User: Fold these one by one.
Assistant:
Number 1:
Amino acid sequence: MWYHNGEGDQMTDKHLKYISKKMSYALRHNPGKYGIQLDEYGYTDLAHFIAALNRVHHLALTRGDIAAVIAHSDKQRFEIKGDRICALYGHSIPGIIHHQVATPPAILYHGTARRFLPSIRKLGLLPMQRQFVHLSTDIQTAHQVGSRHDSHPIILTIDTRAAQTAGIQFYVGNDQIWLADEIPAQFLHGWPKKSENS
Ligand code: HQG
């Protein structure tokens, strides 16, 4: 399938995915490689960002190309505000990126691998390599997230009201993703019977 960038050029799904991966890498994991700086909310200057992507990867991307990547993505990964762009979630860089604190739906979901369950039972959900634990608003999204780690993912449910009452804060990622510093195991439900998991 071909996508238009609004400037007369066309890109394939493969092109869009390639660019999206590089954008994620730069904005979530390694801005230093691109010579860009993120502010405390993860935003950076869009023109500088495009120039950096082009320089590092020998591309000739325009603002229209970046807009096309965002518009045709399967997930809401990035946001452009005026002349700035950010990744909405997924960061692993050392300095914490701030997200808005808010009250999530009463139940959130987290799709994970069967092999992680013994550790999650003990330690709760931890951010692991990222800055925050990622939670989904619906089961289908949680299933997709968990499928990245296991062909038969387990969907845990999070009792957000009980967690909030205990002082756990939730942060806005995008319409389908919420973030938290950690979720202790007592607020997690939907465990399979012990015999069904590793
Ligand atoms: C697991 C993608 C052992 C956790 C997705 C997960 C998402 C533990 C894995 C976003 C644990 C980390 C994030 C513990 C958590 N012991 N394992 N105590 N606590 N884990 O990829 O949530 O496509 O860093 O269950 O769609 O899978 O990149 O996090 O399985 O929205 O835009 O440790 O990234 O978005 O894996 O995915 P990840 P995630 P994009």
Number 2:
Amino acid sequence: PLVLGIETSCDETGIGIVRGTELLANIVSSSMEEHARFGGVIPEIAARAHLEAFVPTLRRALDTAGIELRDVDAIAVTAGPGLSGALMVGLSAAKGLALAAEKPLYGVNHLVAHVSVGLLTPASHSAGSAGGASGMASLPENTGALLVSGGHTEILRVGSLTSDVQLLGSTIDDAAGEAFDKTARLLGLGYPGGPAIGAAAASGDPTAFRFPRGLTMPKFEGSAQAPGPHRHNWSFSGLKTAVARAVEQFEAAGRPVPVADIAASFQEAVVDVLTGKAVRAAREHGISTILLGGGVAANQRLRELLAQRCEAAGIELRIPDVSLCTDNGAMVASLGAQLVAAGIAPSSLQIPADSSQPVQRISV
Ligand code: ATP
Ligand code: MG
Ligand code: FE
């Protein structure tokens, strides 16, 4: 199916177009720079920016794919989770388009969309290739997903992207991306923190500081036979505090803060515990393929260490192109195409925005 995907849950206005698993267009307009001076996303600014960017972004996506709205089989839109006002802009626009063009509407889960992006392949331009309902690549058996984003950090079992997603573990406090953003602020590296820390870390020593790996003590993890309460969960708030202490010590001593070493050591701590726990959860739950998704999946060190540890554990790993990790419309279109192909009923045109939609609720 040919599906238009609309994403407005945070500060990216994203419009993507896919044919089955084939990526035809992915245009993103971000209001990130408007939020940078506040050190975080301001919901009202984000919503207003979506309103302004929506139509030009849609126009560019349709032109890139070489289609018109009337050509699409369905319209998919992020219904949640995310910022309410931001979600409402995309949902309202999607409903208007669906109504006017007489297309089915699919309100989808942003988190499952982050994972679904892993199914996409670049446009092949060869007639009759992957794309139609029959050309949908199916998910391997025993698939799991590591979702690492600005607001979520979860390890999932994915029985089906359209009907069966289960939570195996998650963060009990900060999300991985949030930890990057807060730590970057502490280090004076600006917003968003993920790319800034990654860049600073490149010239630092990851072994300079031994920062804590949250929830890895035996009382939390237990053993495979007797799992502790947080065996597959993460915690990043202690790590953030440890970084703050380290910075304070240098400042109190009147010495320059070794920003690159702290950034590299922080990044190593996050990536070590993310990959270690994800691979172990996968092994213990019989997962043989992991899809990586979410903005933090753009992190080079995470991509590298996860690939190493998956290979060592005999787990197949699928990592999306960096451009598809942070919020975009292609991921929403990808999940929409899966829903259409699976014969799932479209959404009502009265669906609300659900700012805290849980990952198990794939479509609304
Ligand atoms: P959610 O998907 O949970 O609703 P979100 O949509 O705000 O949250 P994403 O767009 O998926 O989050 O990801 C943004 C996050 O990814 C930010 O916290 C950002 O710092 C982080 N990030 C982006 N690039 C990198 C990178 N190269 N390394 C580490 N983190 C990164
Ligand atoms: Mg964003
Ligand atoms: Fe996201």
